[in-house]
Amino acid sequence: MERVVETSSLHIGHARDVSVDVKVSNTNTDDNNNNNNNNNSVLHVQVRSYQRKANNLLEQVKTNRVQSRLVTQKVEELLLQFLSEYDNNILSDGPLALELLNTALSNCSSQKNERLVPRLFSLTCQVMIRSDYRNTSVATINEVHRQLWRLLNGYEQYFATNDIQYNTHHVNDACSYYIRHIVYDANKKRRKLDYRKNKQINQLIDRLAKLYRNPSVPLMTNPYIDDSVIMLLCNQRKPREAYELLRKRVEKKKTSLPSSSSKDLLPPEPLVSSFTSIINGYAKISQPENALRVVEWMLSAQNETTVVPPPNVSCFNALLHAYAMAGGNDAGFKAEQTLEWMEQICDETEQHLDTMPDDISYNICINAWARSNHPDAPIRAEDLLRRIISLGEAGMCSNSNQVGPSEEAFTAVMNTWVNCISNNNNNNLRKKVDNQEVTDRVTIILDLMERISEEDSDRLTLSVIPYTVLIKAWEKTAQQRRGLERQKCGDKILQVVQRMRAKGVAPTTEVYNSVLTALEEIAAINAVFYFLELEQQYCDGTIQLNTRTFNCGLNAIAALNRPDAVEKATDILKRMFKYCESDRSILPETFTFNIILKVLSRSESHIPDAAARADDLLSEMDSMPSVTPDFISYVTCIIAWGRSHEKDKMKRVTNLLQKYISSLDERNHQDGNDNKSSIAVFNAVLSVCHHNLSPELRVDSLETAQVTMTELRKVKGTADQITYSSFFRVVKEGSPVDRPPTTLFLNLIEKELIRCTSDGYITRDILTAVYQVASTTVFTNLVGQNEDPRTFSIPKAWSRNV
Asked: pLDDT value at position 665?
């Protein structure tokens, strides 16, 4: 039995090591499946091979053709086969592994003395997770949690009585694998764990902690479970708590005394990954100084007899990331100093620590410069890039791989130059950078990238990303140009697409969208023509487009604002519906309809019924299952009515406001903003009221403004400066001179002035409006004194938010 256990331990260690690369391996398998039918058939046989063996064993157990004492060993062998062929795992492997586990448990003559049981739980949980690794479902995670909880609650039944190390290895291995998988997935998506998963993990950790403290339970903590808890804390943006936990573990290890009777015979030695997680945790909350403190602690501990591991290149990369995330003018300098520090440590220390900067180190350092606002950022980033190229040509290596330029490094430097254009208005810049100069530098970097790729395609491959950056650079250059020079920038952008094709890089849909966006900024007519060319190629089946492409084309048509814009925009919408019958990537969305609504709102001068057509389109959106009008839809339609010449337009505007209010709860959930989106609709109505104060519409506009403010308070909306300014302008310019306002209207003015004072939006124009409309007595009661608003000294608290 002892020989079997030792062999199994080696297998599970191997399984844990390869689990990190499972996604890459699965991807490779998929590629092979797509490219080679013979491989597909072989893989199919392999999958069925271990499933067939598992089903045969289950059948033998049912018919009593296998001895009970051998079932656990045979189940262990099958589970190991599942894991060794993890590339081919399928969803059905999880339930099958669980069935094998239950079969083994039911056939143990004495589970308490069966050492393999904790190991079987560990292997089963790994198979369940790996069988659904690409998209681990909630059901799978919940089932794994149930099995781990079953193991911990049944420790008296399942743990090996006299083997604390064996229990510790497999129990903690299973729990840490489960925790690390969930946390790693959340980190990859740059999200915190959701409430349910966080609760499940903490329940498991609390249960483990109780078992560790119980001297009668043959179980103790190990580095992997500590590392998992640290990862969890850092995911929850609690690196300080993770740091304190690690400190305690180190002190516990340093002060522990070996004792054969002690449960703490082997206190955990912290892993270097625990330190790296904490450094990354401080990076997430932009505290590079604390990240540096962790690295300094690791280095200083090397002069002592301690269990603190030496820092490696991953620790320093995490520190570099902390500087990059924090940003600021000195981010690039600190990152470069860290690179020099890494080289110095590697060269000078007797241990020759693994701290030599690698590709990732240089990329992060370049990113630190890109995120800084320092005027020398693009030059310093480019110098780093050329340093990487020189190291690659010289064959320099870190302990992990050869240092050489990557696409990420080139793209980061190009983006740093482009960001320099955006920062031209920054007063910190010593010199204003000419956009043409920036575009030339970006082009030179791309030239260098193409040359290296031609010399050694394995060393550097080209993609669409750097070409997209060059397109963005020409777009920004065009913003400084006028006339013919501006048009030339558009030609340069089209030449970038041709350059891509010449280098064997096929433009993607995103590239076409970037070109359309840039051309629209330069000359909308050129964007329209280019869009029509793309649409023809799409119809020919030579390229792929999506909804955003058509939205770009519609935006260009809207920017032209020509008499036939409505007809052309609606024709495109009809074609989109036709295309999406066979291609759902071109399904019209809310933004698509909003562009057409915008076109209609601008077309009142040559299309008399434009507002009515916008209203109909809004109703059509409301009736469609795939599209829901948002606040922009309502604002645009309200503006369309405000520009119309219909006599009942204020009534139509009021109806639109009521329609929006009736669906406000659903709208707030969709927009994700309960006040800003809502207040925009109310402000649009008040703006329409202000621009329609002609004698024949004055009464309707005043009534609509009154209804708008009343409804705003009913829905508990928070007014802003635009709200108060628009409302009181309507009050000032719309109130008839020959007729005093009604008591109801005066009460509304009084309430809104009080709210405006409380919110800090009082201006001299607002006071003047109230002074002209209200009686002297009312104004005195509201303001506190009877003084001309033109000379009245407004308290700072009243206008603090203006």
From this structure: 64
